[in-house]
């Protein structure tokens, strides 16, 4: 029985949308077992009466332990059954089957390719050298021509890498490029991740700042419009660079408008190693609020998808700071996420039992305190902390907003 195509009888007065499911082959294990990724897609029937809305691509679980996005995609599929959809939507849970299954003891690892050590989310493709020649050759082209031809160029580059490359690809590149090939066909791209133990936060390109207020996410990191290998950057950077290249030749476009509607976000949905379906429902509503704002969806019944009222804080990437453990030890994480922490208030307390009564019973000359408070010289907004209580000196303990402001 196809459990995915649901019966329309449940909501007789509404159209019920059907997503197609296909299984994408992204690699092979040593045994020959296939690595596969499920792809759910909705194709919008275009009518002349209505201009087509942006196309959407959403993926989850590129990092193995960051599983909440799969639950959010489930809830999106449930909610989208009863929406009017004006664009194409592609949803990809379990985007990285290697990372997803990469267990060690009780824990999922899956942040780095275990063979190469490279972060799974730093393997996407962008070749800046194609931008300036394209802008030169198409300086007088219409917006529609630019959109079509540039997208074709981006897709052709990925196809070249995947299909016409005698030197082969790493396991991670093969997965990443296939995902990117789908993402390049969308205008709006969401890559669903989580932190270790974390508040919800959003990585947002600086030019797309206005869109951040449509998500139900209280913390936004504004990232420069440059490529560092991640999915979000790999899909918006080419368009941003193209806009810059046209501008350098005297033709001005506005990012986020017309042919340059491209927006990509990394959505950090909370903590790793857990799913919560009730929270996922709210996360999905927040995403639908953004998609409604972009004209992609409207509910067939009930209220519009409106963003929740909340204080939204933002900071620039350069002010999103990591605090590294000044010593090894056992950490009692004290600071609450999303609550401004005044100067001098402790972020964490580090327990060093080796220092407890050391002078009386040991020959050690060095005697420190068994408890150390860790605080900072400026007000910060704690966003996430390391997943384990035991840390080596130099472990990334907390990540915090500094010099933050309200959106
Ligand atoms: Zn991640």
Give an overview in words.
The chain is of the alpha+beta class and 407 residues long. The chain folds into 2 domains: 8-310, 3-Layer(aba) Sandwich (Aminopeptidase), CATH 3.40.630.10; 319-406, RNA polymerase II/Efflux pump adaptor protein, barrel-sandwich hybrid domain (OB fold (Dihydrolipoamide Acetyltransferase, E2P)), CATH 2.40.50.100. 24% of the residues lie in helices and 25% in strands. It is built from 8 helices and 22 strands. The strands form 5 sheets. It has a 10-stranded mixed β-sheet with strand order 1-2-5-3-8-12-10-11-14-22, with helices on both faces. A 4-stranded antiparallel β-sheet has the order 9-19-21-15, with no helix packed on it. A 4-stranded antiparallel β-sheet has the order 18-17-16-20, with no helix packed on it. β1 and β2 form a beta hairpin. α1 (68-80) crosses α7, α3 packs across α6 (231-248) and α4 (143-163) packs antiparallel against α5. The longest helix has 21 residues, at 143-163. Bound molecules: zinc ion (ZN). The site of zinc ion has 4 residues, from loops. Zinc ion binds at residues 63, 66, 121, 193.
Beta-strand percentage range: 25-35%
* Number of structural domains: 2
CATH topology call of the largest domain = Aminopeptidase
Helix content: 10-25%
In whole angstroms, how far apart are the ends?
48 Å
Radius of gyration: 23 Å
The global form is: globular
Largest sheet: 10 strands, mixed
Give the class-level CATH name of the largest domain: Alpha Beta
CATH superfamily of the largest domain, by name, is Zn peptidases
The number of helices is 8
Structural class, judged by helices and strands? alpha+beta
The CATH architecture of the largest domain comes to 3-Layer(aba) Sandwich
- Contiguous runs where pLDDT drops below 50 for at least 5 residues: 1-13
Number of strands: 22
């Amino acid at each position: 029985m196809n459990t995915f195509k649901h019966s329309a009888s449940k909501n007789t007065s509404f159209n019920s949308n059907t997503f197609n499911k296909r299984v994408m082959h992204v690699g092979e294990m040593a045994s020959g077992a296939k690595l596969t990724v499920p792809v759910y897609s909705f194709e919008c029937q275009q009518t002349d009466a209505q201009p087509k809305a942006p196309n959407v691509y959403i993926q989850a679980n590129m990092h193995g332990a960051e599983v909440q996005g799969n639950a959010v995609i489930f809830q999106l599929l449930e909610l989208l059954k009863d929406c009017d959809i004006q664009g194409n939507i592609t949803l990809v849970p379990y985007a990285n089957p290697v990372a997803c299954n990469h267990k060690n003891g009780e824990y999922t690892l899956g942040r780095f390719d275990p063979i190469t050590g490279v972060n799974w989310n730093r393997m996407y493709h962008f070749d800046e050298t194609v931008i300036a020649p394209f802008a030169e050759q198409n300086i007088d082209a219409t917006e529609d021509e630019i959109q079509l031809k540039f997208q074709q160029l981006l897709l052709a580059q990925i196809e070249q890498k995947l299909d016409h490359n005698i030197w082969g690809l790493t396991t991670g590149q093969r997965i990443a490029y296939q995902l990117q090939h789908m993402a390049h066909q969308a205008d709006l791209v969401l890559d669903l991740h989580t932190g270790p133990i974390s508040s919800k936060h959003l990585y947002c390109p600086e030019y797309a700042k206005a869109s951040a207020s449509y998500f139900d996410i209280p913390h936004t990191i504004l990232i420069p419009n440059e490529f560092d290998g991640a999915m979000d950057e790999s899909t918006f950077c080419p368009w941003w660079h193209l806009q810059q290249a046209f501008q350098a030749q005297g033709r001005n476009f506005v990012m986020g408008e017309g042919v340059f509607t491209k927006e990509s976000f990394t959505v950090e949905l909370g903590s790793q190693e857990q799913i919560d379906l009730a929270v996922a429902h709210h996360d999905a509503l927040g995403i639908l609020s953004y998609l409604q704002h972009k004209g992609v969806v409207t509910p067939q019944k009930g209220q519009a998808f409106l963003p929740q009222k909340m204080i939204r804080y933002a900071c620039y990437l350069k002010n999103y700071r990591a605090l590294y453990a000044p010593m090894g030890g056992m950490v009692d994480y004290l600071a609450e996420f999303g609550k401004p922490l005044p100067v001098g208030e402790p972020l964490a307390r580090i327990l060093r039992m080796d220092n407890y009564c050391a002078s009386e019973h040991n020959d050690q000359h060095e005697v420190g305190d068994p408890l150390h408070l860790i605080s900072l010289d400026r007000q910060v907004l704690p966003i996430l902390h390391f997943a384990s209580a035991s840390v080596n000196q130099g472990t990334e303990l907390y990540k915090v907003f500094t010099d933050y402001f309200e959106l």
